[in-house]
Amino acid sequence: MKKILIELVLTGAIIAVVWLGLSQIDWMKLLNIEPTTQTTEEKIGDLFWKMLKNTESEITSDSIVASVDSMLTRICTANSIDRKKVKLHLLRKDEINAFALPNNHLVIYSGLITSCENEAELYGVLAHELAHMEKNHVMNKLIKEIGLSVLISMSTGNGNTEIMKEALKHLSSTAYDRKLETEADLTAVDYLEKAGIDPEPFANFLYSLADETKNLPSQIYWISTHPESKERAEKIIEHIKCKNFPKVEKKDSLRFERLKEKIKQK
Amino acid sequence: MIASTNFQYQPSEHELEKASNSYVMSLIAIMGGLPLPIINLIATFVFYLGNLKGTYFVRWHCIQALLSQLFLLPFNSIGFWWTISILFTPETITSNYIAYLITIFIFNLTEFIGTIYTAIATRNGKHVEWWVIGGLTHLICKDK
Description:
The complex is a heterodimer. Chain A is mostly helical. Chain A has two domains: 1-33; 34-265, no CATH class. Chain A is globular and about 85 Å long. In chain A, 67% of the residues lie in helices and 5% in strands. Chain A has 14 helices and three strands. By secondary structure, chain B is mainly α. Chain B has five helices and two strands; from the N terminus they run E-H-H-H-H-E-H. Chain B has helices at residues 13-33, 39-50, 56-88, 95-123, 133-140, and strands spanning 2-5, 127-130. Chain B has a two-stranded antiparallel ribbon. The interface between A and B is medium-sized, with 26 and 23 residues.
């Protein structure tokens, strides 16, 4: 019996050692494998963006796009996120909304930018959506709610247009579950912290819009689709208490006011 | 890994054939049942049930063949469900997954070659006992 046990343990150990040893090799690189969901994600993301582009008006003014782009770059650089993979799109729409699409398409409505009190609030929203992308929440949500088979058929060009519209509507106007939203909030706070941006205005933004939602439910998508906003704002405040962050500088405020003016003018 | 010893009696030609067939059965089921890791186990188990009243030598080898399949089952099942989760859930292919597949491939191949060798050796009158499995078989299978 003792001999069998020793042999059994030895066999288990050999299997573990072989597996661990083989795990040290970067097979993904060696075999040039890309996770299949990435390919599907790329195709679906591009399809969704194409649909949006055809129905909405995109802001292409260099001065406006460059301003938001530089804010996004600041967060990405500070958090070692590949800026090139994030595709920023600004759409002219009064709705207060921003959302992430598969394949790192980040869509911001002009209504959200103009409703921000200061630059730090917009930084917060950008960081929050970046967190959804980095944590792979977008595809997880789609797979959970629409199903992988439908997504694969979409990516191969066999998708039903109505289903695609429904999926896009889902991504732009419904919330992630509470766990994912909290994870995105706290990750956003970490991103902001690393970029040297005070996360408190982001919490304030959630808090103030939560109040306004009661009166303007149809306009404030970003907040009405992110439930329990007050609770989330409180969590952020709790997370950052006892930490010191640089406050919003006057020159930043002026620059942001000019950006808002430009958006309103065009 | 595999050791040839003398069985406690000299089996007849008919016993050698039946004992050898228990290994052949698992080989055929492996080919027919892939990628489902359970098929070969079921086939070997059915063959074992059919030989419950067989001689000690035949029963002994049926159990060794069955245990060899049973031993690989958890490893193959993990590999199978891991693959399913990659295909149908957000789980993605990783180096760990590929390393695991290679590991179970190596052990399945070793078992496959071992099974072929044992089937031939048993047919030629040799009594082959496997590492771990042979000892376990002795514990389970007793001479009536």
